[in-house]
Design goal:
Length: about 500
C-alpha cells in the first residue's frame, strides 16, 4: 500500500480517537465553564478530519492503491467508501445540517419541558428535508432510507430489514399478551436505598470478571452510560448510580462492558487502521446485549454473583432468593419509555420508530402528523394510551440530531446476539457451568476469536453468517425468549 495513503489513514484514525476522547471528557469531567470552549475545539477537530478525508490527494492515493493482502484490501475499501460519501455532500449542506441540529436540540428540550410537540415540529420537518437531500447526494436505488441506514449499518437495506422487523412485530405481540396475563413478580427493591459506593464496588468486580482490561481502559460516571475512548488500548466506559435504582448501575456496567470488550478485542496489528472498528452499530450492540441480557440476566450468571451482591446489601436483600431476584431483573411489562423497556417489549419500541421513520423519509408521513401517528402505533403495538409527548414522540433525542436510520440497529443487536449465543452454546463445551462458576473467560475468548478479532473485514451480516451459518433472522431471538420467559412466567 502507498506510504502516503497508509500515513493518512493513521492520521484520520488518530484524529477520530482524539475527538472520541474530547467527547468522553465532555460527558464526565469537563468543568461547566469549559463547555463553549470544548464545542469550539470539537468543531475544529472535526473540520480537520473532514479536510483530510476530502483531500483530493487522498482520492489519488486510493485510486493508485495496490493492497498486498485481504487486510489491506479491506482498509482501502472502507476508507474509500467513507471518503466517497464525504465528498458527495456539499459543504453548504453540512453547514446547514449543523445549524439545523443546533436549533432542533434547543427546540426539543423546550418542547419536552412544555409538553408541546408543535414547538419541535418545524425542526423535524427541516431535518427531514436535509436528510432526504443528503440521501439523494449519497445516491440510492429509489429508497432514500437505504442511504441513511448506510451511516450506521453498512450493507443493510430496507428490502432486507423490513420483512425481519415486520415478522418480529407479529411474533412479539402474542408473547407480550401471554406474559401480561400472568401475575407480575413482586417488587423487591421498592422503598429501599442502596449505597452508591457499594454499587460501584460491585460494578468494578463485574468488569474484572468479564475480562475488561483496566490497564487499557477505565470506568467513570455519567448521566447517560456510554463507551468511548481513543482505541484498542484506551477504552472508556461510564455507568450511573442511583440509590433507589440499584439495577441501573449493574446492567449499565455489563452493557457498556460488552461494548468495551469489543473495542479491546480488535487485532493489535490493525491498530490505527480502518479495520480496527466494528462493521456496524448493530453488531456492536449485539455485544452489549449479549452480555447484558442473555448472560447478565441469566440464571447461571446470578447463581454465582447473587450471593456476592446480597453480601453488599444484607438488609435490603434479606429474605430475597435468587429466584425472586431473577424474576425482578427479567420483569416484563408494557411501558412508554424505550430505554426502560424489558427485552421482550423493547423491540416493539424499535419497530414503532422504524415504521414511522420509513414513512417520514418516503414523504408518506408529514411532521405535522407525527405525534398522532406515534400515539396510534403505541396503542397498536404496546396497548398503551399516550398521555403526554414526554412519554411519547419527544422521549428520544435521536430525531433532534436528524439521526434517521439509527433506531433499527438496536433491534439488529438483539437478533444478532441471540444467534451468536446459540452458536457459542453449541461450540463451547460446558458453557453454562462455567458461567455459573463465575468463569466468564470462555465467553470472552469465543467472542474475541469469532467476532472482535475480525474487526471490519466483513459487513455485519456477512460476519454473522460466517460465524453462525445464517444471516439476519428473528428465529433464534424468538426461541430464546420463549425458552427463558416460558420458564419464568409459565407460558
Amino acid at each position: 500500500m502507498n506510504t502516503d495513503l497508509f500515513t493518512r489513514m493513521q492520521e484520520l484514525r488518530d484524529l477520530a480517537g482524539v475527538i472520541g476522547l474530547a467527547s468522553w471528557d465532555q460527558e464526565t469531567y469537563l468543568p461547566k465553564k469549559a463547555e463553549a470552549g470544548r464545542a469550539a475545539q470539537l468543531a475544529t477537530l472535526q473540520g480537520l478530519y473532514h479536510e483530510r478525508l476530502t483531500d483530493p490527494r487522498l482520492g489519488d492515493w486510493l485510486g493508485d492503491a495496490k493492497p498486498k493482502d485481504d487486510d489491506e484490501k479491506a482498509m482501502v475499501r472502507i476508507l474509500g467508501k467513507e471518503r466517497d460519501r464525504a465528498v458527495k455532500i456539499p459543504q453548504s449542506l453540512v453547514k446547514e445540517l449543523a445549524e439545523a441540529q443546533s436549533h432542533a436540540l434547543s427546540a426539543w428540550r423546550d418542547a419536552r419541558e412544555k409538553k408541546d410537540f408543535a414547538l419541535f415540529r418545524p425542526h423535524v420537518q427541516k431535518l427531514l428535508e436535509l436528510r432526504r437531500a443528503m440521501a439523494d447526494a449519497w445516491g440510492h436505488d429509489g429508497e432514500r432510507y437505504d442511504a441513511l441506514l448506510e451511516n450506521y449499518e453498512p450493507g443493510m437495506r430496507v428490502k432486507r430489514l423490513s420483512p425481519v422487523l415486520s415478522g418480529l412485530r407479529t411474533k412479539l405481540v402474542p408473547i407480550v399478551n401471554a406474559i401480561d396475563a400472568k401475575p407480575p413478580p413482586k417488587r423487591i427493591f421498592e422503598g429501599k436505598k442502596f449505597d452508591p459506593d457499594a454499587q460501584w464496588k460491585f460494578t468494578m468486580s463485574l468488569l474484572e470478571a468479564m475480562g475488561f482490561d483496566l490497564d487499557a481502559g477505565r470506568q467513570d460516571k455519567s448521566t447517560h452510560p456510554f463507551t468511548g475512548g481513543t482505541g484498542l488500548y484506551d477504552v472508556r466506559l461510564t455507568t450511573r448510580l442511583f440509590p433507589d435504582l440499584p439495577l441501573s448501575s449493574v446492567f449499565s456496567t455489563i452493557h457498556e462492558g460488552g461494548h468495551g470488550l469489543y473495542e479491546q478485542g480488535f487485532d493489535p496489528k490493525h491498530v490505527r487502521t480502518t479495520v480496527a472498528q466494528a462493521p456496524s452499530m448493530g453488531l456492536h450492540e449485539s455485544q452489549s446485549r449479549l452480555w447484558e441480557n442473555v448472560i447478565g440476566r441469566g440464571r447461571a450468571f446470578w447463581s454465582h454473583f447473587f450471593p456476592k451482591y446480597a453480601a453488599l446489601f444484607p438488609s435490603q436483600l434479606s429474605g430475597v432468593s435468587v429466584d425472586d431476584f431473577l424474576r425482578e431483573v427479567n420483569r416484563v411489562e408494557r411501558s412508554f419509555i424505550r430505554v426502560e423497556a424489558d427485552e421482550v417489549t423493547y423491540n416493539l419500541h424499535i419497530v414503532l420508530r422504524y415504521e414511522l421513520e420509513l414513512e417520514l423519509i418516503r414523504g408518506n408521513l408529514q411532521a405535522a402528523d407525527l405525534e398522532a401517528a406515534w400515539n396510534q402505533k403505541t396503542k397498536d403495538l404496546l396497548g398503551l394510551e399516550v398521555k403526554n409527548v414526554g412519554q411519547g414522540v419527544l422521549q428520544d433525542i435521536h430525531w433532534a440530531y436528524g439521526e434517521f436510520g439509527y433506531f433499527p440497529t438496536y433491534a439488529l443487536g438483539n437478533l444478532y446476539a441471540a444467534s451468536l449465543w446459540k452458536t457459542m452454546s453449541r461450540e463451547v463445551s460446558g458453557l453454562e457451568k462455567s458461567i455459573s462458576d463465575g468463569e466468564l473467560a470462555p465467553v470472552k475468548r469465543w467472542l474475541r476469536e469469532k467476532v472482535h478479532g475480525e474487526g471490519f473485514r466483513f459487513d455485519a451480516e456477512a460476519l454473522v453468517t460466517r460465524v453462525t451459518g445464517q444471516g439476519l433472522t428473528d428465529d433464534d431471538f424468538i426461541a430464546y425468549l420463549k425458552m427463558k420467559y416460558g420458564a419464568l412466567y409459565g407460558i
